Amino acid sequence: MLNLPEKIFGWCYPLFRKWGFEDTIATYLSLVINLALLCFLVYLIYIGFRLLLVTLMAIVAKRTKTKFDDLLVTNKTAKYIAYLIPLLFVYKSVPLILNNFVYWESIFGKMLEVYIVLWILWIIRTVFNALRDHLKQNPKFSDKPIDSYIQIIMIVLWVFGIIIIVSEIFDIDKKSLLAILGAISAVIILVFRDTILGFVASVQVSLNDMVRIGDWITFDKFGADGDVIEINLATVKVRNFDNTTTTIPTYSLISDSFRNWRGMLDSDGRRLKRHVLIKAKSIRFLNATELQKLKKIQLISSYIDTKQVEIEKHNQQFHIDKSLAINGRNLTNFGLFRKYITKYLEDYPGINKEMILLCRQLQPTPHGIPLEIYAFSSDKRFENYEYIIADVFDHIFASIVYFDLEIAEVNSITD
Q1: Cα torsion 331, 334, 336, 342: sign
Q2: What is the C-alpha to C-alpha distance for residues 191 and 187, in angstroms, rounded to an integer?
Q3: Is 127 left (phi over 0), alpha (psi -120 to 50) or beta?
Q4: Burial of 41 by CB count in 10 Å (0-12 exposed, 13-18 middle, 19+ buried)?
Q5: CA-based radius of gyration for the chain
Q6: DSSP letter at 10?
Q7: How confident is residue 2, by pLDDT bands cut at 50, 70 and 90?
Q8: Which residues contact 174 (CB under 8 A, 6 or more apart)?
Q9: Which of 10, 93, 283, 313 could covalently link to 334 via disulfide, CB atoms 3.0 to 4.6 Å apart?
């Protein structure tokens, strides 16, 4: 039984010969008519299948609960499949239409084969794009580098597609072509160096869980400070806090140093580490009158009483001559101020009391003696975190005069 293309295009030439036309004239007349008929039929097939497939997929997507088919509709997968069906019909018809034109039949046949391979790859790409969008909507995969996985798969498919195209165009056996590609692999590695490095980096980033979509990272080398919005084979996109976008080569994530703030965001607090510089000459011993005055400060009132009893007992036990303040044990304004700030932080509602809380003295500098606050804020949101820091140090600046201390210079380090 004759197939459909033979039935459609096989009648012209015999009919013209029957009517008495010469062989050459009959051949060219049948070519023109068949080409016109082919164009008309291809258009009808495309319109029909496009209407059928697009409508059918839209109905299925509407009635099913899964969102994957909705994304297939969004990515126009059915429309591209509708293009493929007329192409296959043309591919089957060309040998019949160009039966007497062997040269052109070979050229158009190879062109159609190449076009069909490219179109199939394009259809596969739309399916993977739909799969990518579907996985990104799933909370389990929202922080995974789905773009990198899809790109890797597509690169592999494109390599196979190119092998098929080259083998069809030049009539080379696929095994021989693979052998040739193996021989020139060094050139391929050189040409696709960045892609290969990106592939390796993408795999390492994924396996080691170095970066996820949504992570806040700081990469000084590229001026990036913000949230990761996309991870693909070649680049990582970061939306900075000033709403600019920085593109970082994926390979740089494993070759250079960067900071990922995920650990801080997943922890119970965000570190507050800042200091003020106190003038060394303002630090001194306190006498009884000054201590009595400082007892009015409620946070350290009981502490002063306890320490006075302890110090007095020690000095009496060892018969300390208190005619000079330097003798024996004494309280200093700097020491009391450190205790006061510690008590203040313990009562401050924005500080996490379950984590480290220190008010400590650091190594003296030429500019003064650093008094550092080392604690963790319970609220990790940027604006609230900055408010807590400002509120704490506003109090420090305002309260330091009660201890007769002076600030030499303010220097801050915030993590």
Answers
A1: negative
A2: 6
A3: alpha
A4: middle
A5: 39
A6: S
A7: very low
A8: 163, 164, 167
A9: 283
Angle, helix 102-137 to helix 77-97, in steps of 10 degrees: 170
Residue 325 phi/psi, 5-degree rounding, is -65, -25
What pLDDT does residue 12 have? 66
Residue 411 has pLDDT above 50, yes or no: no
Structure tokens that stand for 330 in this block: 């004494």
Structure tokens belonging to residue 355: 């984590």
Single-letter code of the amino acid located at 3:
N
One DSSP character per residue, 182-243 reads HHTHHHHHHHTHHHHHHHHHHHHHHHTT---TT-EEEEGGGTEEEEEEEE-SSEEEEEETTS
**In contact, 300 and 340? CB cutoff 8 Å:** yes
Least confident residue range of 138-147, 176-185, 297-306, 375-384: 176-185
Alpha helices by DSSP H, 101-192: 102-137, 146-169, 174-183, 185-191
Burial class of 338 by CB neighbour count within 10 A (0 to 12, 13 to 18, 19+): middle
Contact 283, 369 (CB under 8 A): yes
Out of 151-155, 204-208, 274-278, 304-308, pick the least confident: 204-208
b (16+ CB within 10 A) / e for 122-150: ebbbbbbbbbbbbbbeeeeeebbbbbbbb
Cβ(312)–Cβ(353) under 8 Å?
no
